[in-house]
């Protein structure tokens, strides 16, 4: 673990009174690295810039990106995780006086893309079967919509529920997750794209969920439209994929909902 503050890097452990630990006061991004390059570097830069603006942090992004580029070139292949959080404040409790922040980076070299199929520069994982979770994502305040918050207990509990389901049905690899309004928003660790009547869509991230990097890449590349995804749509889907900035695209071959399986087409690239 590396700690960056005021231009100086140190190797440390996170103390318990850090605001990241105490309040989840910050955001993060997880970046795939292949052949010494960060995947979708500009989109991750945009995510970091958005997080800095939302939290009012004082951070020069260009030097930070330079450090990330250096870490990527050194590790060649694997994952970089970056957390940006507010520094400790002199006021008690939740309040803060300034936007001074700190950056935590963890570089995890690993051959995660060995054997993965690449289509149009995007890693495509083996197809999987998914289910639907009864848990609901909470509605966020407008300023935090789409931000990848380090405080994400709803995702933690959703994955725990998925693991319980997998004990009885190990063929289910992931699941759709809805919000309190009854709309399907995402998978447990990524966004969802779906094809209906020949057109690709993705649920809008205006009330709940995270605006993922891979989602942004694909929406820009394939002109994917935003559209609500509700129960009645699930029985009519042509195709579906889950997306993640590290894993890329994972096609869905079957969806389990309300006691029934629905077989879906695998369309790579998104066509």
Regions with little confidence, pLDDT below 50 for 5+ residues: none
Q: What structural class is derived from the secondary structure elements?
A: alpha+beta
* End-to-end gap: 42 Å
The main sheet comes to: 9 strands, mixed
Overall mean pLDDT: 93
What Rg do the Cα atoms give? 19 Å
Detailed description of the structure:
It catalyses: L-leucine + 2-oxoglutarate = 4-methyl-2-oxopentanoate + L-glutamate; L-valine + 2-oxoglutarate = 3-methyl-2-oxobutanoate + L-glutamate; L-isoleucine + 2-oxoglutarate = (S)-3-methyl-2-oxopentanoate + L-glutamate. Acts on leucine, isoleucine and valine. The chain has 271 residues and is α+β, with helices and mostly antiparallel strands. The chain is 24% helix and 36% strand. The strands form 3 sheets. Strands 9, 10, 11, 12, 13, 14, 15, 16 and 17 form a 9-stranded mixed β-sheet that branches.
Quick description:
24% of the residues lie in helices and 36% in strands.
Properties at a glance:
single chain; 271 residues; alpha+beta; 9-stranded mixed β-sheet; 6-stranded antiparallel β-sheet; 17 strands; 24% helix; 36% strand; globular; EC 2.6.1.42; Class-IV_PLP-Dep_Aminotrnsfr; Aminotrans_IV
């Amino acid at each position: 673990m590396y700690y960056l503050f005021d231009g100086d890097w140190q190797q440390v452990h996170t103390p318990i009174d850090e605001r990241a630990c105490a309040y989840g006061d910050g955001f993060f991004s997880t970046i795939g690295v292949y052949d010494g390059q960060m995947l979708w570097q500009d989109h991750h830069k945009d995510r970091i810039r958005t997080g800095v603006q939302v939290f009012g942090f004082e951070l020069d992004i260009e030097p930070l990106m330079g450090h990330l580029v250096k870490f990527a070139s050194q590790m060649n292949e694997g994952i970089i995780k970056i957390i940006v959080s507010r520094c400790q404040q002199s006021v008690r409790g939740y309040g803060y006086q300034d936007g001074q922040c700190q950056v935590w980076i963890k570089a995890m070299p690993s051959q995660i893309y060995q054997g993965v199929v690449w289509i149009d520069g995007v890693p495509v994982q083996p197809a999987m079967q998914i289910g639907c979770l009864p848990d609901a994502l909470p509605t966020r305040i407008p300023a935090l919509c789409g931000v990848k918050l380090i405080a994400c207990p709803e995702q933690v509990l959703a994955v725990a529920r998925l693991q319980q389901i997998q004990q009885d049905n190990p063929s289910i690899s992931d699941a759709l997750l809805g919000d309190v309004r009854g709309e399907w928003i995402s998978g447990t660790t990524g966004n969802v794209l779906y094809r209906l009547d020949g057109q690709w869509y993705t649920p809008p991230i205006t009330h709940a969920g995270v605006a993922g990097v891979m989602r942004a890449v694909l929406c820009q590349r394939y002109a994917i439209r935003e559209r609500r995804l509700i129960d009645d749509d699930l029985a009519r889907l042509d195709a579906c994929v889950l997306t993640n900035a590290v894993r890329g695209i994972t096609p869905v071959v079957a969806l389990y909902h309300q006691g029934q399986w629905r077989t879906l087409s695998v369309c790579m690239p998104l066509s």
